[in-house]
Amino acid sequence: MVEVDEKTETVILVVESENIPYDDVSDAITSMGGSIHSIDEVEVISMGDSADSSTQTDV
């Protein structure tokens, strides 16, 4: 038997910052009754030698 939660909603959340504390974001979502099921994409921009350097990864 498969159970389906009729109150489930999907939300796409974009978080942009120079330093994102994952645990703080996860705790905030959990405190509002939500949960993280997947992280679909992570983009990292290196501010080192080349300001144009970026990496995008589908997870």
Strand line-up in the sheet with most strands:
1-2
Secondary structure tally: strands: 2
Shape: elongated
Percent helix range:
10-25%
Arithmetic mean of pLDDT: 79
User: What is the percentage of strand-forming residues?
Assistant: 15-25%
Helical stretch tally: 1
Quaternary structure state of the chains depicted = single chain
The description of the largest β-sheet is:
2 strands, antiparallel
The SSE order reads HEE
Structural class by secondary-structure content: alpha+beta
First-last Cα distance = 30 Å
Low-confidence stretches: none
Could you explain how this protein is built, in words?
Pfam families: DUF211. InterPro entries: DUF211, MTH889-like_dom_sf. The protein is an alpha+beta fold. It has a domain at 1-34. The protein is 17% helix and 17% strand. The chain is built from 1 helix and 2 strands; from the N terminus they run H-E-E. It has one helix spanning 22-31; strands spanning 41-45, 54-58. Strands 1-2 form a two-stranded antiparallel sheet. The longest helix is centred in the middle third of the chain and has 10 residues, at 22-31. It is elongated. The chain starts with 21 loop residues before the first helix and ends with a strand. The mean pLDDT is 79.
Describe the structure using short key phrases:
59 residues, alpha+beta, 2 strands, 17% strand, elongated
Topology:
Blueprint: H1 22-31, E1 41-45, E2 54-58
Antiparallel strand pairs: 1-2
